Amino acid sequence: MENIDVLNEEGAKTGEVLPRKEVHRQGKLHRAVHLYLFNQEKRLLLQRRTAHTDHYPGMWSISVTGHVDAGEESWAAVQRELKEELGMDVAAQDFTFLFTYRRDAELRPTYIDRQFHDVYACWVDFEIDKVAFDKTAVSEVKLVSLAEFEQMVDAAVALAPVYGDACKRVVAMVQPLAGLD
């Protein structure tokens, strides 16, 4: 069972710790991480959620997302989630922190998502056919160019809408980091 630190309006821990399901049922503020993972050709890895995922089932998602566990730092959560979801071990110093943003959404009455998202990027030498993704959470993976990703967000087709808020900002920030400007 995942336990999560509850946060206040400023993003600081309150001292309250709840199971993931309760955090969402009660609509408590908490922290999540997003990772935009690029390969050596500067293509972004996307994952498709399984049909039984509790939010945005069957839709394409960014490379890695997840909750920050109670007592965990966000960079450690990114590292853990990357290993759990895609089977990749990447050193913490290889992650580039981009920014934090807050998003509140009620997906259904029993799933209220109120999160601070810490957004990271990472460039790693990997082959898509060697990605050992967790088949309980991910049904498939693919690589897209940053331009293709931007089009997916603009068209609001097949991509989980939770990423639209931050995508433009991510694209603008990673283009110079990746040498794409």
Quick summary:
With 181 residues, the chain is α+β, with helices and mostly antiparallel strands. The chain is built from 4 helices and 9 strands, in the order E-E-H-E-E-E-E-H-E-E-E-H-H.
Please tally the β strands and state the result: 9
Unreliable residue stretches:
none
- Topology order in helix (H) and strand (E) letters: EEHEEEEHEEEHH
CATH topology: Nucleoside Triphosphate Pyrophosphohydrolase
Count, helices: 4
How many distinct domains? 1
Major sheet summary line: 4 strands, mixed
* Strand-pairing-aware structural class: alpha+beta
- Spatial strand sequence of the major β-sheet: 6-3-8-7
Do you know the CATH architecture?
Alpha-Beta Complex
CATH superfamily: Nucleoside Triphosphate Pyrophosphohydrolase
Mean pLDDT: 90
Distance between the termini: 43 Å
CATH class: Alpha Beta
What does this structure look like?
The chain has about 180 residues and is an alpha+beta fold. The chain has one domain: Nucleoside Triphosphate Pyrophosphohydrolase. Helices cover about 25% and strands about 35% of the residues. The strands form three sheets. A four-stranded mixed β-sheet has the order 6-3-8-7, with helices on both faces. It has a three-stranded antiparallel β-sheet with strand order 5-4-9. A two-stranded antiparallel ribbon has the order 1-2. Helix 3 packs antiparallel against helix 4. The longest helix is centred in the C-terminal third of the chain and has 14 residues. It is globular. The mean pLDDT is about 90.
